[in-house]
Every structure is written in C-alpha cells, then in structure tokens.
Specification:
By secondary structure, this protein is of the alpha/beta class. It has ten helices and 14 strands. It folds into two domains: about 10-175, 3-Layer(aba) Sandwich (Peroxisomal Thiolase, Chain A, domain 1), CATH 3.40.47; about 185-330, Peroxisomal Thiolase, Chain A, domain 1, CATH 3.40.47. About 50% of the residues are buried. Bound molecules: oxa(dethia)-CoA.
Length: about 325
C-alpha cells in the first residue's frame, strides 16, 4: 500500500507586501525618563532617533490584519484564496490559542493558521516554511506575518532594552510563480546563548512569588552585538552563495533592524558594493523583532528605493539564539 502524494515541484515567490506601524511616535527624550541615558547616547550606540509604540487598541491582531490587508491588495488576491497563515511573534500575550487563527478569522479566512516562536528571526523562518509549502504544493498562497507589541514586555526602567524595542507588523504573500523568487534558507540556532535575550522569569515563578509585575525582556547587549556583527555576516555570505549569487548581484540588503551599528558592521564585513541599498528603518521605528524585516522591506518599496524585480537579501537573528536568511526577488 503506497500513500499517494503529488511529487511536482513548483516555483515560489513573494507576491505582495504590507506593513502596519504602531501609531504612537516615541522620541528618545521620552524613553530616557526611566533610564540614566541621553538622546545622544541612544543615537550613537543604536541609531534610533524615535520608535513606535502601539495604542491600547492596536493589538497584535489589529496590527497584523492591517499589514495583511495591504499585502493581499499588493499581491492582488483575496483573503479567501490564502491556504495558510503563519504568524511570527513573541508578544501575543495568550499562551493559546494562537494569534494566527484570530487574524485569519478577522480577514475572513478559514485557512490553516498557526504561530511560530523564533523571536526576531521569526519572519524569515516563516518565509522559509511558506516557500517550501508552495514549492511542494501544500499551499498555493501563504500569508506570513511578523508582528510584535514589545512595549507590553519591555520594562521602561531596564537600561539595556527600554530604548530599543518597539511595536508594529509586516506581512508578505508567498505564492506560486513562473520563476523561483525565494532562495534556499540558511538557518540555525545557538542554544549555548539561550540566556542572552530572554524573559526575566518563568510565569510560574512570577505567580509563586506573588508578584503583580509582568516579566519583561532582558538582553546581554554587548554579547549579542558581537555575535550578530560577526557570525551573521558569515551567514549572510553563505546565503548568497547558496542562491548562486555574489554581493555584486545584490540590489537590496534588509538585515534585522537590531542596531544601526550591527547593520554597518555586517555591510563592511560583507564588503557590500556602493550600489546596494541598505535598509535603515530602525532610525524611526526602533527594533520591532519579528516585524522588523518585513517593515523595512515594505518601506523601501514604498519609498522607491527597492524596485520590483530587485534581488534582496533578508537576514534576521534574535533570542534563542536563532537566525534565518534568504535571498528574494522584490515583488
Ligand atoms: O533584536 C534582537 C537582537 N538584538 C541585538 O542584536 C542587540 C545587540 N546589542 C546592542 O544593540 C547593543 O549592545 C546595545 C545598544 C543594547 C548597547 O550598546 P553597547 O555599545 O553594547 O553598550 P554596552 O552595554 O557595552 O555599554 C557601554 C557603556 C557602558 O558604560 P561604561 O562601562 O563604558 O562607562 C554602559 O554602562 O554604555 C553604558 N550604557 C548606557 N549609557 C546610556 C549602557 N546602557 C546605556 C544606556 N544609556 N541606555
């Protein structure tokens, strides 16, 4: 007895993009109130001038639906055509059910829907899954969302994170195409650095201690910085290699918007030519974790800095530690 399966392989590509920026613009002058810092230090050490925080009504679901509607319109498809919704997030505050089913429902879809937890690298993990699903024929269209409301899990008095994290959502439609538009993923994890970025306490310990305070994110910033700036440049080069291209073929570089100095260090280490457009969305958005890559990519398209057909390298890294990267053709 054999199990019947369609063994045809298809081409996958990004067909549309969308974004939702949280509404509240928060300048450095506001975040330094809770920490001993300055506008000058934050700009110099991270490149952040201001960031976006969500209003109470801008939930993970609301922001995701906003980004998804834009991506659906950009791809020219209806929500009913989507076969799977993948949501990358660490700040949907219910352990279960997932944010994805609520988002699908809000969009009017009954597609398969689930969340993934790979922190700041989550969106690129989702893109890899979506691409393989389309190539295998498991899904014709996949909606991939990276979304965070990190302001809910960031302590305003934590000096190492209060000025970095932010809120927003980015979305992509991955679907069938005449030619391949998404390269092989290069991904992995380094659990030896499990504690480098993490929630302060297990929820059970919070309750056992009778605390009324939410746990929040903490980060060994300098260690993560060193890892990201050096190890991730190697991953970026391997990703180009796996797609059969070099830095000279690249039009756009969209790294996770973690720190402007990490972006610069990676670009230097990769010897990116002058013609490559580098995403610098962090300056006015802050670090929005899983949302940062799709937000930055969509903004480059809206600003005319990335054009349809351009070759872009996406790379993201974060808590776990986790990383994932792929080359895509801009829709
Ligand atoms: O999204 C997930 C991945 N995340 C990342 O990739 C983030 C990676 N890390 C970073 O972006 C950086 O490590 C930070 C921006 C978080 C911090 O910058 P840094 O240059 O690594 O700072 P540091 O922790 O090494 O501290 C340097 C100095 C210290 O002072 P001394 O000892 O040199 O006198 C700190 O006390 O800066 C001081 N400092 C601050 N000063 C003003 C640390 N935090 C602050 C602050 N404001 N908020």
């Amino acid at each position: 007895m054999t199990i019947s399966v369609d063994t045809t392989t298809r081409h996958s590509a990004v067909l549309g993009l969308g974004l939702y920026r949280a509404s509240r613009v928060v300048p450095n002058s506001e975040v330094i109130e809770g920490i001993d810092s300055s506008d000058e230090w934050i700009q110099q050490r991270s490149g952040i001038i201001e960031r976006r925080f969500a209003l109470p009504e801008e939930t993970v679901v609301v922001m995701s639906v906003g980004a998804a509607r834009e991506a659906l319109a950009d791809a020219g498809i209806e929500a009913g055509q989507v076969d799977c919704v993948i949501v990358a997030t660490v700040s949907h505050m219910l352990q279960t059910p997932s944010a994805a089913t609520a988002i699908a429902h809000e969009l009017g879809s009954t597609a398969a829907a689930f969340d993934i937890s790979a922190a700041c690298a989550g969106f690129c993990h989702g893109m890899a899954l979506a691409s393989d699903m389309v190539r295998a024929g498991t899904a014709k269209y996949v909606l991939v969302i990276g979304v965070e409301r990190l302001s809910d899990i960031t302590s305003a008095s934590d000096r190492g994170t209060a000025f970095i994290f932010s809120d927003g959502a980015g979305a992509a439609i991955v679907g069938e195409s005449d030619e391949q538009g998404i390269g092989p993923v290069v991904w992995g994890s380094d659990g030896e650095q499990y504690d480098a970025i993490r929630q302060t306490e297990d929820w059970r310990d919070v309750v056992a201690a009778g605390s009324t305070e939410m746990p929040h994110l903490v980060m060994k910033g300098a260690e993560v910085f060193r890892w990201a700036a050096f190890a991730m440049a190697k991953v970026a080069m391997e990703t180009l290699d796996r797609s059969g291209i070099t830095v000279d073929d690249l039009d756009v570089f969209v790294p996770h918007q973690a720190n402007m100095r990490i972006t610069d260090a990676m670009a230097r280490s990769m010897k990116l030519p002058e013609h490559v457009t580098i995403a610098r969305d962090i300056a006015h958005q802050g670090n929005s974790s899983a949302a940062s890559v799709p937000l930055a990519l969509r903004q480059l398209v809206l600003d005319g800095e990335a054009k349809s057909g351009d070759i872009a390298l996406l790379i993201a890294f974060g808590a776990g530690l986790t990383y994932a990267a792929q080359v895509i053709r801009v829709p």
